[in-house]
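Archive entry. Fields below.
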Amino acid sequence: MEGSPSTIGAVTALAESPADARAARLAAAPPAVVLDHVHKTFRLPHVQYSTLKERALHPFRSTTYDELKALVDVDLTIKQGEFFGIVGRNGSGKSTMLKCLAGIYRPDRGRITVHGRLSPFIELGVGFNPDLTARDNIVINAVMMGLTRKEAVRSFDGVIEFAELEEFVDLKLKNYSSGMAVRLGFATAIQVSADVLLVDEVLAVGDAAFQQKCFEEFTRLKAEGRTVVFVTHDMSAVERYCDRAMLIERGNVLKIGEPHAISRAYNELNFGRLVHASDETGRYGDQEVCAIKDAWFEHAGERTGEIAQYERLTMCARIHFRDAVEEPVIGFSVRNDVGHTVFITTTEWAQTPTGTFAAGDEIVVRITVDAIMSPTKYDLTPSIAPAGGVDVVDVREDLASVYVHGTRVTGGLVDLPHTFTLERGT
Amino acid sequence: MTELAAPPAPVSRVPTRGDELRRLLSLTWTLALSDWKLRFYGSALGLAWTLVRPFALFGVVYVVFTEIAGLDKNVPNYGVYILFALVLYTFFTEMTSNSVQALVSRESLLRKMQFNPIVIPLSISITALLNLGMTLLAVFIFALGTGVYPTLTWLELPVIVLLLFLFGTGVGMLLSVLYVRYRDVQPIWDVVTQITFYASSVLYVAVPTVPANYRQEFLCNPLSALFAQMRHAVIDNDAPTITSAFNHGVYVLIPLGIIVGTFTLGLWFFVRESPRVAENL
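PREDICTED_STRUCTURE:
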C-alpha cells in the first residue's frame, strides 16, 4: 500500500509515535479542507446556440438564462483525519461540491483550500479503455491520478493484489465483468495514497464483501491521518463510518453535525413522516398501537446467549399493546454474522391466529426450533404488523443475538436432518 | 486551488509547479502512447495500416499527376516529393481533425478527473507524431530505393516537423475549444482541409509549377512554405530554399509568423477557455 515515496516517511513516522501524540498533532494541524463561502451557479440558456450559423444569423439576440444555484454560501471546515459525510437528495448539490473540491469546477465566489494531495474517487475507472489490458489501464489511471509513470508501474503489483485479479492481468478490460472493472478502479485509486480522498458513491457498486473491503481501507487510511470526504445516500454507512456529516438541500447547507442526527434529518427530508424517525437505528414503524419491548433467546426455559448445535432453541419477543389490536401479524427473522437471512416466519404464514388484544395488554411470543444452523452468531429481528396491512408497526433489527457453537462446521448454512440410503443395483 | 503552507506530518508534499509540469507531460505521453497502441489492436495488419494509406494514396496520385497531368516535368524526383509532402500533410490533418472532437469525446474524463485539459490536444499531436515517425521510416527506404540519398541538409527535417507540429497543435487547440461551443466547426474544418490539400503544394511544387505572379502570396501559406523548404533539404539540393523562393528573403517571416502566431493564439485561447470546459461540455 505504501507505494508512493512521498508518503512513506509520513507513514513510518506515524507508526512510531504513540496514538495520543498523533491525536495532538492532528488537532494542531491545519484543517484539511476549507470552503469559505463558496457559491456555484450554473447558467442554463433557454435557447442553445450551438452552431456558428445561428450565432451569425442572430448576432445581437441576447440569450436568456435560467440560473441553477448548485451551491449557496457553503462554509465548511473539515479537520485532518476526519471521515466526513455529505448527504442530500438527488440534485441537491453534493456532486457539484465534490467536483469543486476536486478542482474540476471553479466556484463563482468564495475560496476552497485543500491541504495536501487530493485524490478524487468521483467515479471509478474513469479513462479505462476497454480495448487495453488491465496492465495498461492501471498505468493510465494512476498517471491520471497524479503518479509518475515509474510510480505507476511500481504500484502495479499492489493494485492487482488488492483487486484480487492476478489471473486476469493480461485480459482486455472489455472481457472483465463490471464488478472486476470496479475493483480494478478502486484498487488503482487507493494506491495513489493521497491525503484527502473524495469518494462519490463509488461503493454503491460491487458486492457486499468488496464494499466491506473498501470501507476497511478507508478506515485504515483515516487511521493514518488521512481525510475522507464521502458522498452517499446510504445512511447506515454514514452512521457507521463518519465522524461528522452534512446535509445539503438545493445547494444550501441545512445541517452539519453528528452522523446520527444528520441521518435522521435526511430521512425526515426524504420520507416526511412515512417512516417514523426513531431514536434507535434499525428500528422502523410508528409504534403507535403496539411496540416490541424486548427479544431474547431461551434454552430449557432460561434466557441464553449461546447454545450448542442441535439443541432446542426458543426465540422470544415481548409485545406491549397501547391500543386495541385485532389479529396482528407477528414475525421473526434470523440472520447470520454475514447478514444472510437463514430463517423467516410470521404468524400469518404459519396460519396461527393471534387473537384480540386490549390497550395495556402485554404478551410474550415464542417459537421453538432445532438449532441446526452452522456454528456462528445469529441475530433475531422481531416485527409486528396490522392484519393484512403493508405497513409495519414496529421492527427492531438484530434485537437479540445468540452464538451457536459446535464442532461440525460443514460449510453449509444449516445442517438439515438427513439419512443416507445406499442400494445396490436399482 | 492548493494553498501552500508548511505541511504537518501526515500530509505529503504539496505539489510544486515543477511537479505539475511533470505530471502534465507524463499524462500527455501516457495518453498518446495508449492511443497509438490502440490503433493496432484488433487489426490483422496492425502497424502496416499506417503505411498502407499514404502509400496507396501516393500510388494513385503519382499515376494521375505524372501520366495524365504531366506535372513531373522539370521536377527531379517528383514521386519522392509528393510522398514526403503527403505524409507531412497527413500529419497536419491528423493533428487538427482529431483535435476537433477531442474534448467533447473525452467528456467523462474531463468531468470526473482533475487535470489540465491541454493534455488532450497535446496527446493527439504526439500520437500523430508517433505515426509520422513510423511512416517516415518507410518513406526513407522508398527514397533510398529511388535514388534520393541522405545529405547533411536532411538534418533540417526535424526543424520542419517541429514547425509543422507547432502549427498543427495551435490549430488543434483552437478547434477543440471552439467545437465545445459551436458544433459546426466539424463540417467547416472538413471543408477547410479539403481546400488546403489542393491549395498547398502537396501534389505539385511551388517552384516552378506555381505561376510567378502570385507565387509570393502562395508561399505565405505555412504548409507550402514548409514543403518548399523540405524539397530543398531532403529531395533536391538544387531546388530553391524558401528564402530564395521569395522575392526577398525577409518575406519568410510571414509564414513563420503565421505558425508562431497560430500556436500562441491557440494556446492563449485554450488556456482562457479550458477552466470552464468541464462545465460547458
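CURATOR_NOTE: Residues 376 and 404 of chain A are 5 Å apart (CA to CA).
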